[in-house]
C-alpha cells in the first residue's frame, strides 16, 4: 500500500488563514500591525527568491513587511548598526537576516545582535536556550513546522521512537529537542555522518526526519512498516527530461519509502511551505507579546 502524502501546502494554507485572522484581530482590537524586517546582504539567487516569497506571504497575512537589501560588500559594523536600529523600532516586531551572509561577515555576531524578543527565526542563544529547557520562546521555523507535519498525520507521538538524521543547528538539533520535549514526548535518536549502521536505528523508528542534505540517504528497506517520513532535503539531480536539466528530490528515496511508510512528505510541497508559515506565526506572536 502506498503511503499517504503529507500535504505541506494545505497545512500551510490552513495555518496562514489562522494567522491572517489573528493579524486582523490584533489590528482591530489594539491598532497594532505585526511588522517583519528582512535583511538581505548580497544577491544570492536562492536568497533573493526566498526573501521575495516572505514579502508576499507577509502581504497576504496583512502584515507590514520591510525588506532591506544591502550590497555584498556591506561592512559588518554597518549591518550590526542596522540591526540595532531595528531592535529599537516599535513598528518592527520581528527581524530576520537572510543566511548565508557574504564572506567576512560573522553569522554568529549578526544573529547574536538581534534582540531575543524580535528573533522570529528562533536562532539567538537566548531562544535556543529557552527551547532547550522548555520555556516559552520563539521556536525555529523549520523544526516547528516539522512537528506540525507529523501531528497532522494523527500520530500520537507520546512514547514513539523518532529518529532524526542530521545534526545541523538549523534543523537536526532543534527538531530533536522539540520532539523530545514533554508536550510532544517522543523518544529521540539523533543520527549523523558518524553513525554506524544507520538502518539499525531507522528500522525501529515510528518517525524518521531526514535532513542530511544527500539524496537516497533513506530508502524503503531501512524503514519500519507504517513509519512516518518527514523529508527535509532539497537536492538538485541531473535530469535531461526536464527543461532546466535537473529535478528536485529529497534526502529520502520517495519511490521505495512510500511503499513502506504510512505517510511521507513530498519534495517539493512538504516541509518547504511550512518554514515561511511558522515565520509568520512567530511574527504575530512577537507583536502580541509587545503590547
Write up this protein:
It contains ten helices and eleven strands. It has helices spanning about 10-30, 45-60, 75-85, 105-115, 125-135, 140-150, 170-180, 200, 255, 270-290, and strands at about 5, 35-40, 65-70, 95, 160-165, 185-190, 205-210, 230, 235-240, 245-250, 265. Strand 5 (about 160-165), helix 7 (about 170-180) and strand 6 form a beta-alpha-beta unit. Helix 6 crosses helix 7 (about 170-180) and helix 6 crosses helix 10 (about 270-290). The protein is globular.
What is shown here, in short?
This protein is α/β, with parallel strands linked by helices.
- What's the count of strands? 11
Mean pLDDT: 95
First CA to last CA: what distance? 51 Å
> What composes the largest sheet?
6 strands, parallel
Succession of helices and strands = EHEHEHEHHHEHEHEEEEHEH
User: Which band does the percent of strand residues land in?
Assistant: 15-25%
The helix-and-strand class reads alpha/beta
Computed over alpha carbons, the radius of gyration is 19 Å
Unreliable residue runs: none
Give the strand order of the largest sheet, numbering strands 1, 2, ... along the chain: 1-11-8-7-5-6
Helix content: 25-40%
Shape summary: globular
How large is the count of helical segments? 10
Descriptive keywords:
single chain, 291 residues, alpha/beta, three-stranded parallel sheet
SSE blueprint and pairings:
Blueprint lengths: L3 E2 L2 H23 L4 E7 L3 H17 L2 E7 L5 H12 L6 E4 L9 H7 L11 H9 L7 H11 L9 E5 L6 H9 L6 E5 L6 H5 L4 E4 L17 E4 L3 E4 L7 E4 L4 H4 L5 E2 L7 H19 L1
Parallel strand pairs: 1-11, 2-3, 2-4, 5-6, 5-7, 7-8, 8-11
Antiparallel strand pairs: 9-10
